[in-house]
Amino acid sequence: MSTNTSIIMPGERVTIVEDAAKSKRIILGPGLRRVDEKVVATKAGPLRHKEPNTFWVDNYQRRYVPARGDLIIGIVKARAGDLYRVDIGAADLASISYLAFEAATKKNRPDLNPGDLLYARVLNANADIEPELVCVNSNGKRGKLGVLQDGFFFKCSLNLGRLLLRESCPALAALTEELPYEIAVGVNGRIWVKAHSTRETVGLANAIMTLEQAGYAEIEKICGNLSGVMQA
Amino acid sequence: MFMNANLFEPGKSKPERNFIQGAVKQNTRFDGRKSNEFRDVKLTFGADWGTVAVSIGETKVLAQVSCDIGTPSSARANEGTLFLNVDIKGVAFLDEAQATHDQRFLTLNSLLERTFKSSRCLDLESLCIAVEQSVWCVRVDINVLNHDGNLYDASTIAALAALMHFRRPEVSYVEEEIRTFSERERELLPLLFLHYPVSVTYCVYKSSSQPLVDPTLLEENAADSVIVLSFNSYQELCTLNAGGTAPTNVRTIMQCARSAASRSKALVQFIRKALELDAERRQQPNQVAGLVDLLNESAPQLSFKHLMAEQGQTETNKADQLSGDEPMQLQETVSEEQTTDTSTQKIPEPQMDDSSWLPQEQNLSEEQQVDGVQLSSKQEVPTTAKAGKSKPNRGKNKFVKKQPPTPRKQNQSDSEEEVTQII
User: Fold this and answer.
1) Which of A11, A45, B125, B218 is in the most buried spot, having the most CB atoms within 10 Å?
2) Measured in whole angstroms, how far is the alpha carbon of residue A161 from the centre of its chain?
3) Residues of B in contact with A201 (CB under 8 A)
4) Separation between Cα atoms, residue B4 and residue A155, nearest integer Å
C-alpha cells in the first residue's frame, strides 16, 4: 500500500485513516488516537496498515512501555519481602512473586540473585501500578520461561526486537543456516543469545546488532557475512 | 555500535559478566581488538582557545578551559590555581542509583586532580600576577557526552589537550593596577607546562593474567579491578589508581606500567601534532568550527591512528636511538644521585611507588625520580622538541644547570627555587 511510505508527526491529523473509517470500522493501533471526529498521531514514524482494518505508527523507540502478555527479558535487581524486583527497561522496576515460578511453594523458593536474567511474561501492566511478571503459564508450567543461564545478553531498540519476532522476518532463519544457536528476544528490546563457543556468540551478537541499522533487503547479506566472519 | 543504546548500562547482568570473563580467558574481545590494542583517539578543536572534544570509540568528552583573575590561597600566595570540574550527568543511561553515580564522579574527579594538580604539571607560578593579591584561576570543565568505557583516558586527554590549546590574555601590573590586554592589543599567551601527563586504563580479570587495555563500558563493568596509570611524556609515573578485587601480580602491573609509559608518550606526541595542525588551520580564514560542528563531527577530526601512522617510520628509528641512549643516561644519573637526593621527597607519588617497582627496576626508578626533580627545576616550553629527542639533552642540561643551585637547595623550598629560575 502507498500508505507505507507516508511519515507522520505527533499532532498531525491523519486523513487517510479518517477516510478509511467512513466506509468501515477500523482499529487504531499504537501512535494513533481519536480526538472527537478526528484521528491524530501521537508518535512520529511511518504509518503502517494491515489488512483489513488496522492502522498504527511504527515509531522508533527504545524505552519500553509494559503491556499485558508481552514476553520480556529482565534483570533481577533485588529481593524485597516475598517479591523480586526486576529491571525490564520500563519507567518502573517490575516485580515478580516467589510463587510465580514452576513448582514453587512457600517452602520451596526459587534461587534468584541480583544480576540473574529472567525471561518472563507481563501479567499486569497499568500506568499507575508497577508491572508484575510471571514465569509460568496458566497451567502452572514454565514452558520456555525462567532464568537464562550463560550466553550473552545485549540491548537493542524495541523495533529490532519486534522485527526479529515477526513471522516474516528472514533474519533468524538465515542465521540458523550459518550456525546452531539459542536465542531469547524480549519485546522490551533485550536479546539473549547463546552459541557453542565464545567466538560464535560474539559473531552472532554483532550480526544481530548490525541489523539495527539495516534495511529489509540487507538482512540476508548480513546474515550471510556471518560465516565469513566466523572463519576469519 | 548500539550497545548502550537503550538507556541501559551494559555489564549489569551475570551472563554478560561471565561471558566477558570467559572471552578474556580465550583472548577475544567483543569488538575484535587484541588485549593490548587501543581504540582510535580522535581530537577536535573548537573555535575558542581551550575547547576540545575527544572521542575514544563511542566515548565522547568535551573539555573547555577558561580563566579569570582571582585571589590566591594564603598557603600558596605566589601561585595561580587550577580547578578541574567533571560533569557526567549528561550520560542518561548510566546506573541512576545515587551511590554509584557519586562514586563514579568522585573517582574520576580525584584521578584528574591527582594527574594534573598533584603532579604539578602546570607551572602555576607563571600564573601569578601580584603575590597575595591576584593570580590567574584556570578552570577546566569536562563534560562527558557519552560513556562507552575508559572515561579516565578520555578525560585526561581532553583536559591535557584543552590546557595545551588554551591561550590566556596578557596582563600588566603597574602601580597596583591590573591591566588586561585584549587579543588585538597583545598576543594571547599559552600556559606553561612542566610536564604532560595522560592516563592509560587497564582492566584485570580473575580469569586471566592478561589485562585488557582501553576497556569498553561492558568490559569495565565486568572487570574485577581497574588500574589507571598516568604517565607523562618523559615516562614518569604521575598517578597510580588500582582498585577492585582481582589479585594482581606485581609483574602484571609492571608490564602495564611499561606499556602505559610508551603509550602516554605517543599520546602526548599525538596531541602536540594535532595542536600544530590546528594552529596551521587557524592561519586560514573561515575555518571556524562551532560547538555544533564539534558535536556532530562535521569539524575536522584528528585521529590518533591516522596521525601516528605517518610517524611510524621515524618512530622505529627513534626507538633504536632511545634504547641506545638509555644506558648512558643511567650512568649519569647514578653519579648525580647524592646531589639531588634532598629534593626527591618533592614528588611523593613516584616515591611511594618505589616499593612496588621490581628490584630489577631499581636503577630505572631512580633514574625516573631524578628525572622528575630535574624536570621540575627546568623550564619547559610547550614547543620543545619531541620527548624522545629531548631526553638525552635534558641529561646534559642537568649537569650544567644543577651544580650551582644545589648548596642552597637544602634549606629552601623547591618552589621558590623554581621561581628564581623561571623569571
Assistant:
1) B218
2) 4
3) 19
4) 7
Q: Which fold is adopted by the domain B14-317?
A: Ribosomal Protein S5; domain 2 (3.30.230)
Say what the pLDDT of residue A41 is.
Answer: 92
pLDDT at B12: 81
All three cell numbers of A102, joined, read 514452576
Provide the pLDDT confidence category of residue A42 given band limits of 50, 70 and 90.
very high
Give the pLDDT band of residue B299 (cuts 50, 70, 90).
low
> In the 8-state DSSP scheme, what is residue A96?
E
Q: Rounded CA gap, A111 and A96, in Å?
A: 13
Q: Which amino acid is at A178?
A: E
More confident residue, B278 or B363: B278
What SS3 state is found at A143? coil
CA distance A28 to chain B (A): 27
Number of helices (H), then strands (E), in chain B: 12, 15
Q: Angle at Cα A160 formed by Cα A155 and Cα A164, nearest 5°?
A: 110
Give backbone dihedrals phi and psi of B408, rounded to 5 degrees, phi first: -65, -25
Whole-angstrom distance, CA of residue B380 vs CA of residue B398: 13
Q: Which of A62, A199, A206 sits opposite B7 (nearest CB)?
A: A62
Average pLDDT over residues B261-278: 90
How far apart CA A185 and CA A153 sit, in angstroms, is 10
Domains in chain A: ranges and CATH: 2-57 (2.40.50.100), 71-148 (2.40.50.140), 152-231 (3.30.1370.10)
Q: Is B57 left (phi over 0), alpha (psi -120 to 50) or beta?
A: left
Across the interface, whether the CB atoms of A157 and B30 are under 8 A apart is answered no
Model pLDDT for residues A107-151, shown as the tens digit of each residue: 888 888 998 999 999 998 988 899 999 998 888 788 889 999 888
pLDDT value at B389 more than 70? no
- Helix (H/G/I), strand (E/B), else coil: B339: helix
Q: What is the C-alpha to C-alpha distance for residues A43 and A135, in angstroms, rounded to an integer?
A: 32
CA A30 to chain centre: 14
Residue B278's Cβ-count burial label (10 Å; 0-12, 13-18, 19+) is buried
Largest CA distance in chain A: 60
Q: Which residues pair with B139 in a beta bridge?
A: B66, B83
Question: What does the alpha-carbon distance between residue B83 and residue B67 come to, in Å, rounded to a whole number?
Answer: 10
Q: Report the amino acid identity of residue A125.
A: A
Pick among B3, B7, B12, B19 to test the A interface (most A CBs inside 10 A): B19
A-chain CB neighbours of B16 within 8 Å are: 152-154
Calculate how close chain B gets to A25, using CA atoms only, in Å.
37
Angle value at C-alpha B354, between B159 and B392, nearest 5 degrees? 65
Higher pLDDT: A189 or B324? It is A189
| Closest-CA residue to B399 (of B329, B305, B297, B343) | B329
Contact A100, A121 (CB under 8 A): no
Strand, helix or coil for residue B52: strand
